[in-house]
Amino acid sequence: MVLALEPFHLMFAAEKSALVTLRAALSMIEAFDSRWVGIAADSYHLWWDPDLAVQFAHADGRIFAVHLSDWLVPTVNLACVRGVPGEGVIDLAAFVKTARHAGFAGPLEVEVLTDRFDGQPARSTARLLRSSIESILGTDADRPSGASRLSC
């Protein structure tokens, strides 16, 4: 079992997380000095950080999970309206490439927290997500697999 710390977007600093940058999370895991403690890197929470590529490089194989969703503009509900990859402003291809370059070789997770798919057939939602990811990353080995969470 591993422990993956997930820094949240700065907008959550007041009520949900003391970790709001990858730098802070990496500093915390260094204190543990254990190969079992690492990072969950969520595009929604980290995309805005101008120091992101440098911090990914410092992760040194300690990225245990990569979550993909998109930041919609305008954002009407900060906690529970994430975009399907490709709908928003995050450069997800660069995010994945940077995580891979930092040594992350695991599956990518699509984490679209929204209620807009409620009541829709799971198969059609899965097709939409697959299509959106393939349009960003292509159909090669970087295609996401793993869990998908679609509801708040």
Can you summarize this structure?
The chain has five helices and five strands; from the N terminus they run βαβααβαβαβ.
- Summing up helix and strand content along with how strands pair, one would put the structural category as alpha/beta
Q: What's the average pLDDT?
A: 89
Which percent range fits the helix content? 25-40%
Number of helices: 5
Strand content bin: 5-15%
Number of separate strands: 5
Strand adjacency order, main sheet: 1-2-3-4-5
C-alpha geometry: globular
Give the C-alpha Rg: 15 Å
Report low-confidence residues grouped into runs of 5 or more.
141-152
Order of helices and strands: EHEHHEHEHE
Largest sheet: 5 strands, parallel
Cα distance spanning the termini: 26 Å
